[in-house]
Amino acid sequence: VEPDTITYSSLISACLAAGEWQHGLRLLMKMRLEGRTPNSATYNPLLNSLWEADQVNSHVCEVNSRVYEVNSHVYEANSHVYEVNNSHVYEANAHVYEVKSHVYEVKSHVYEANSHVYEVMGGPAAEAASGARRGKFACV
Known about the structure:
mainly alpha; 5 helices
């Protein structure tokens, strides 16, 4: 038979009645690790015993220390995510700029080639004359 929340709460209360608040805390941790949810019947006697044993402040400090540690890990993880995102965005923008530069270069070569073709054909007058000889309209 697996112990449930009521069983753990009863065991914790028995430990506290015997003055074993440390063992009661260990049972609370074990209870939570096993997926049992503590309730007010679990916490109230434990808090009263800790208060009477003048242990509340040290445990609050310990909890705050663990919260600070977790927060520092979260901050560090967020920093890495930010760093990775920014470097990839910068890298992607650099590639876009590079591609745009190549497109601009290709367009300038196309423009240059069109200018040469236009020049070889004699400009608008040659176009109009060749179109008129063939009976077509020239586009300028």
